[in-house]
Amino acid sequence: MTSTRRHPGWVAAVGVVLIALGVALWWTQSNRTQAMTADPAGASNATPETGTTAEAVRAPRKPGAPTRVRIPSLGVDAPVLPVRAPDRTLIPPSDPQRLGWWADGAKPGAARGSALVTGHTVHTGGGALDDLEHVEPGDLVVVRTDRGTIRYDVQRVKIFSKGTIADHATKLFSQDVSGRLVLITCEDWDGERYLSNVVVTATPRA
């Protein structure tokens, strides 16, 4: 996802992060584990104007929710909106310059759980997380909330194909781990769809 792909036609090329990829995410809620599976029909029915037929479901902003994510090594400084996962499907904001935080998961800075932040990828450029695969272990990620700023160090950058990410979802998106940040977006555009996800895991800076 290099700068050669960036041009004004990005809107029609938005990658649907979790609808198009058939990803299974897992979380702990109400003392039980539930599966969140994506709807594979979303990509084939996508409209040229938005790249997806579905809109993000906004959640009320609550104390401690993230408001911006900054990744200095990529030049990313993006606003974050709280979103929900009705019917177990998490959809990022349609604007690829905005990110979505799963409001029913951990908050940034929480002692336990994965704070999940996701965004659309644009294969022609223009998405905040287009170059997420280029971050490296040790890179800084800064999350701003109304209660302060949390600094994270990237620990792991992993690309998962559609067929394998579900196998690792329980571990990747666990709410039973020590507090951490998980960023996810699309990867591997083949001319028609995205074949993979980039998942970045970061832990609070000591």
Would you mind describing this structure in some detail?
With 206 residues, the chain is mainly beta. It is 7% helix and 40% strand. The protein contains two helices and 13 strands. The protein has helices at 41-44, 162-172; strands at 14-15, 24-29, 32-37, 57-58, 66-71, 76-84, 99-102, 114-118, 121-122, 140-145, 148-161, 180-189, 194-204. An eight-stranded mixed beta barrel has the order 5-6-7-8-12-13-11-10. The chain has a two-stranded antiparallel ribbon with strand order 1-9. The protein is globular. The chain starts with 13 loop residues before the first strand and ends with a strand.
Question: What's this model, at a glance?
Answer:
With 206 residues, this protein is mainly beta. Helix content is 7%, strand content 40%.
Using brief descriptors, characterize the structure shown.
206 residues; mainly beta; 8-stranded mixed β-barrel; two-stranded antiparallel ribbon; 13 strands; disordered N terminus
What's the layout of helices and strands?
Elements: E1 14-15, E2 24-29, E3 32-37, H1 41-44, E4 57-58, E5 66-71, E6 76-84, E7 99-102, E8 114-118, E9 121-122, E10 140-145, E11 148-161, H2 162-172, E12 180-189, E13 194-204
- Strand order in the sheet with the most strands: 5-6-7-8-12-13-11-10
Mean pLDDT: 76
Q: How much strand?
A: 35-45%
How would you describe the shape? globular
Helix content: under 10%
Alpha-beta content class: mainly beta
Total beta-strand segments: 13
In whole angstroms, how far apart are the ends? 31 Å
Radius of gyration: 15 Å
Sequence of secondary-structure elements: EEEHEEEEEEEEHEE
Low-confidence stretches: 1-53
| Biggest sheet statistics | 8 strands, mixed, barrel
Question: Please, how many helices?
Answer: 2
